[in-house]
Amino acid sequence: MESSTQITRLISLDAMRGFTIAAMIVVNFPGNEEFVYATLRHTKWNGLTFTDLVAPFFLYIVGVSIVLAYSKKLGMAGIKPGLYQKIVVRSVKIFAVGMFLNMLPSFDFTDLRYTGTLHRIAIVFLVCAILFLNTNWKQQAIIGITILVLYSLALNYIPTPGIGEVVIEPGKNLAAWVDQQYLPGKMWQGNWDPEGILSTFPSFVTCITGMLAGRLILGNFTPNEKVNYLMTAGLFSSAAGYFWGLGFPVNENLWTSSFVLVTSGFASLLLGALYFVVDILKRQKGTEPGVIFGANAITVYVLADILALIFYISDFGGKTLNHHFTDSLSQAGLEPKLASLLYALIFVCINFIPAYLLYRRKIFIKL
């Protein structure tokens, strides 16, 4: 049996984190928004694309990372107050960076959006890290299941105020109504926000599933047993999410209960496969870019938004750089969607340069 103290760092998790950030950049920064392959767009409402997997994968990784970072400190006397302070400070910093990115490029304080990817990461990390320090894995699982059931019941059986009946349509559902009443600032879709108040609760569960995976990885099982359990849990979760989705559709915008189970299942399958290949078989060739991106994941995410001011917003001869590139390739006969994807991949490579320099100099920027 393998002791939980033997695992210090998972290269597979670092690689998964890094490749997830790279995928975020690809889907967030196509060469031309008008020409994007369907799977590289978010679903408009119900359904699931590759793009819809990116955000839940990152929250799942946050959950695994919480366990790896704080497990050894749980038994230390008097350390919790210091951990609480660090958790709160880190959450505030991530949220503040999210606000900074939301204000780019005009810094218009009269039209602020108080939600977004980093905002949700900050809130989920804060809640789940504190939860981890005060509960065991069984309690975490019960809390997660309870949230998913209550969320499903609320959206499926509580009539939307002002409409008088249960509606689950864009901008016309209980979650949208709550945001319209209580969410400050601008909403992403005008009268609703995919990172709104109610949908944040099931996103906690996405992180909790990562925490449960982290507990499994640190458990007293052989490496092969850990892989088997991760893969089995992934298959079971994905199947459960599919069947739940028949009544409460898979929907990233609402972060539905079925969406949580399906995406967490896929994340467990991927982590299990990477853990087997990278950490057990030690076949690490090809994972280096992911590890490099993953070493400064949030820094790279922020950098991409800043570099976008040059590559996607600044005017060069009447066009932005991305439109110059995609228009030129399209005129040369390349399919527009492929040209758009190529530019997104080039932008990923551009962001890789500073990530590589930071990694080579062993500079790890932790918010």
From TrEMBL:
Describe the location of the Heparan-alpha-glucosaminide N-acetyltransferase catalytic domain by residue ranges. Answer: 9-220
**Keyword Cell division included in the entry's annotation:** no
UniProt cross-references to Pfam families, sorted A to Z: HGSNAT_cat (PF07786)
Protein name, as recorded: Heparan-alpha-glucosaminide N-acetyltransferase catalytic domain-containing protein
Q: Which domain of life is it from?
A: Bacteria
User: InterPro entries given for it?
Assistant: HGSNAT_cat (IPR012429)
**UniProt KW keywords:** Membrane, Transmembrane, Transmembrane helix
Asked if the Swiss-Prot or TrEMBL record annotates the protein with the keyword rRNA-binding, the reply is no
